[in-house]
Amino acid sequence: MRIALGLEYRGTEFHGWQSQAGGGTVQDALEAALAAIASQPVATLCAGRTDAGVHATQQVVHFDTPVSRPVSAWVRGVNAHLPGGVAVRWAQPVDEAFHARFSARGRRYRYVLLNRPQRPGLWQGRVGWFHLPLSLALMQDACGRLPGEHDFSAFRAAGCQAKSPVKIMTQAAVTQRGSLFVFDFEASAFLHHMVRNLVGSLVAIGKGTHAPTWIDTLLTMKDRTLAAPTFSPDGLYFRGPIYEPHWGLPAASDDFLDGFLP
């Protein structure tokens, strides 16, 4: 039987998603909890690996198991064995053709940036921070240049293992809520550190170091060394993969993210 799970986690609690020899990752915690319910080892595959410090409001994983358990066991039972920073939100049997990663036709990320002179205290680890004033209009102009099919090499980490740097960006937007800037991105797929690198360059534009047309130059030059440094992981949220309706999975729901913001 193949089971799909939707889960959320606070990235500050873990060393990223992917299992490591020393433990301490979301995958390590989840597989240990699943094994406690299945009474045998369980291997999981996720929709999108996240780095240390990056949060998720809708991570999707799948696993195969020969044991039969009530769906509630894969939610409440597993949650009873998970640390406080991660929780399963739903579980659902799926067709064996479903794959958490390869069945996704897109993915969504949000970056929340606190823009004020003082660093965050209450929201430390949950928002990024920049101390100088930023222009919403300049960053919105720059964001408008990102949708479409592009070579995103200028925003690709050196260790990225993606086969191609060419991705289709379907949404790139920034809005302001008081002292917060909220960046939303949706694409067919993302390169390693791509969102954090994009935010770094958008902030450079927002503070007036570069004009919005700099984004066009970076996309054309395809040179990572020309773009801004990688921004902090603190304000980055993986908002989930996008699947075709025929898989019948629950829709991503992260409305609480709006309510929790300062």
Tell me what the structure shows.
Helices cover 21% and strands 28% of the residues. α1 crosses α2 (71-79) and α3 crosses α4. The model has no long low-confidence stretch (mean pLDDT 94). The relative contact order is 0.19. β2 and β3 form a beta hairpin. The protein is built from six helices and ten strands, in the order βαββαβββαβββααβα. Strands 1, 2, 3, 4, 5, 6, 7, 8, 9 and 10 form a ten-stranded mixed beta sheet that branches. The chain has helices at residues 26-38, 71-79, 136-143, 194-206, 214-221, 256-260, and strands at residues 2-9, 44-46, 55-64, 86-94, 106-115, 128-130, 148-151, 166-177, 180-187, 236-242. With 262 residues, it is of the alpha+beta class.
Largest sheet: 10 strands, mixed
User: Tell me, what's the shape?
Assistant: globular
For the record, the CATH architecture of the largest domain stands as 2-Layer Sandwich
Question: Quick one: how many beta strands?
Answer: 10
Q: What oligomeric state best describes the polypeptide chains here? A: single chain
Report the mean per-residue pLDDT as an integer.
94
Q: The CATH topology of the largest domain is what?
A: Alpha-Beta Plaits
**Class inferred from helices and paired strands:** alpha+beta
